[in-house]
What we know:
The complex is a heterodimer of chains A (281) and B (159). Chain A is mostly helical and 281 residues long.
Amino acid sequence: MSRREEILARVKTVEALPSAIQQAIDLLGDADADMGELARIIEFDPGLTSNVLRLVNSPYFGGLRTITSLREAVVRLGAGQVFQLLIACGVIPCMRAEIKGYGLSPGMLLEHSVVAAVAARTVARELGLTAPDHTFTAALLSNIGKIVLGTFLEVDAGPILEIATRHGLTFEAAEEAVLGISHDEVGAALLEHWHLPEPIVFAVRWRLKPEQAPRRDLALDLVHMGSALALMTGLGVGVDGLNYRPSPVVAERLGLDAAALERILASVVTALDEVRALFTA
Amino acid sequence: MQQVIVVNISDMKVSRKHGDVLTTYSLGSCVGVAAWDPKALVGGLIHCLLPLSTSSPERARENPYMFVNTGVGTMLKTLFRMGATRETVVIKAAGGANMRGDDLFHTGARNTEVLRELLTRHGFTLAAGEFGGSIPRGLTLCTDTGRVTVKTFGKEHDL
């Protein structure tokens, strides 16, 4: 078995998401789904319910601090938005742990992921684009492959960084050279294993190679640039450092130049305190 | 007793208290500037996100520390009010990393360039600096000794 096959096989052994989330995902996949049923499933999990309510009531997600039940959240914000926040709440617990192999102490991966998610949404807002519902969640999950590689497989990213530096490669290219697979592809495989919706899996899968993606996708472009901005802030960055390349093609497609990028970075950092508190509480 | 004071992104802290340590983590493209006066024994540390306030004048009014051109001068003036002088203040800086193969934005390089220009224009010398590359850095200043260290990937060295 090659190292790549070994890694992909290991992904399939990762524990499933909490059952309420898995049931909600399955329900959302059903075109005839009853949205009241979605609320009912989530309400069986009180911790999850309170976390989702905290998000839907926050000004950042357009809430008015008056939504008291998931049924009301679904009615007022729409099932799509609630579903995205539900996925975020379900996955966050596994993003808090230390990821030794990638030099991420406890909380760092979550910190970086929240910055990337805020940045992806801010890029859209500042450029006058409408971000698809799943943009925030996809960006939040964009580094999740590092959990599989750095924790479950105990990959040490140090030697990978050396190769990237020595040969002038991006980090994902060095991962491919050493492991036969990069963390973005591993992350997408994990999200597929969890039955997450295809648009999220797609954005995570092609985040680092948007020019090679089989189709153009606005959420992917936003997640790509959100990730780039998060790296520039330096927040929650591990041993892979800033060894990733922002795509000029995506920048042109979005209409993002250096002046806009700086304006957006300022907005992202300003919004962070509020959003960070929502996810780290 | 040693007290660690954390300087966040777009933030600045000063201290004259013996044993205080000013530190900032996660300098990506940002630049961190440490200024210390050996006579007045006061020090300051700033973590600037962006080079020029013209990119977001409104944000600069709310928080001048976000930008190199408005933040560094504000920090130095604060230190001068605390007894530091132009002649004795020691300035060191680090950060300004760039994404690998970034031919688009050059944010780290621009932060570094604007800092260097600003200091030169106002007659200050950069005593030490470590900029560029694609690595995140942390920067720490001990206010009683003026020791400045850079931390990358868990390893720390003097600047």
